[in-house]
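Quick one:
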Amino acid sequence: MIAAARPVQRPRDARLLVVDGRGALLQASRASLVEYLRQGDLVVANDAATLPASLHGVHVPSGAPIEVRLAGRSSLRRDDLRFSAVAFGAGDWRTRTEVRPPPPALAPGERLALGPLAASIGALLGHPRLVALRFEGSADAVWAGIARHGRPIQYAYLSEALALWDVWTPIAAVPVAFEPPSAGFALDWSTLAAMRSRGIGFASLTLAAGISSTGDPALDARLPLDEAYRIPESTASAIRRAKAEGGRIAAIGTTVVRALEHAAARTGATAAGEGVANQRIDARTRLRVVDAILSGTHDPHDSHYQLLRAFQDDATLSRASAALETGGFRTHEFGDSVLIERKVGEAQRCSYDRGVPLPANLPGAPDGRQRGKTRSP
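Output:
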């Protein structure tokens, strides 16, 4: 797949690969997303706004330059100033994380000077680059310092540096995410209006989306890190109502799946409240709440891809990956999208009856057959 090299959140030419419950693949425009939803469905999105979570400064004991990328918190409380963070040595976003030098050796109790902010290392979290970080000062001073000194976490595949507004989705609300819940870039106000006109519900929750990559294989294997979330009562009620009336729950992004499935596993039902999603979702996971997911395109080695295995079998996802590759879909935060429905029995009627079927000779077309109606691009 091709990396989306510009931070264009909602291009009209964005594409969508649809994987229905039987494993059939359809190509469509992302602008046509609502055509693959049904009256009575409920779409749930993450409304977290993205923090400027990259902080450059100095490791005080050595005087060496350091970058810390805030990566997690144990709650969404404003006065909680304890973070997990991933540390890098000298350099900036133009250098791929895989080849960035490591930070100086870090030890508990050492202090970091990060622009106007002072922080201390509370502990190493099982890896020399992953630390518990505690900021000094009042909550007002710390958040103001992060806002003034921090930058959005940057990506070397982009052609230009990100501004804060580049990483806020159209429904961004409380700034608690460390990287953007990027599936939400697919939403815009016309899409939400179209959902409403078709009787498709919409609700939101807040989850502090963590970082997607550290450049270190051992550390990346631990992703995703724990993520704090909050589910409003209005959202929990909407989910229960949709389920009772036979509607499907469509999650906008992996973060929504993590929050809803964690809450359901913890309480046995879709309940409002706060929690910390600390589970791994993969092929072994039995989904309790979510019926479909809209996500970005992911490499099979990514933790996000592992979550998709809870929705479809490996053979279907492999065909989907081949279709994305052959079709030149764009990947990463500002790329194209996939809509994947949870696998159902072969006897169930295909939910998606509109779209551009894949040509029979394109990798990913099931059994070489075209499915669905042909429609103009």
